[in-house]
Amino acid sequence: MVIENQSITLIDEKYLSQSEVLKLSNCIIKCIDLIGCFELNTEMIIDNCIIEELNIHSCWFVKGLKMRRCIVNSYIDYQMGGHNDAPLVFDQNIFIDFFNFFDCEFNAPIVFTNNIVMKGANLLGNIGEGFENRFNNGWEANNNLGDINLNEVI
Q1: Helix %, strand %, coil % for the chain, to 5?
Q2: Domain assignments of the chain as residue spans, ordered by start
């Protein structure tokens, strides 16, 4: 399913159950609410969108997530996430608030490049803690503006 050039109030699991791929492009989105959507079997591609609120706590993007050229205005709480069989790619985004990666286990690579993280993230932080993120097939993090290795739990 491809959704382009729309103003959308809510993207939730109903959209993800309709297609093997959900591509959102050039949209203004009030809320993406995927809290507790374990084992999402839809590849999600979000390109050039403005997202007011992004809720992905406990999401397992099994078929991957690609977020490029987006602005996310809210705090993002990504706890117990990952469990992905395809890469998670965050490229050329602006994250206005803190991006909390907490106790995630990434099976396929995570790519976090060319982003602006205004209040930081703990993707590579919390080293030695029981909730430190695990990267089973590596990670790439280059050319980011803002700290992505904070030792914070928010």
Answers
A1: 5, 45, 55
A2: 2-142
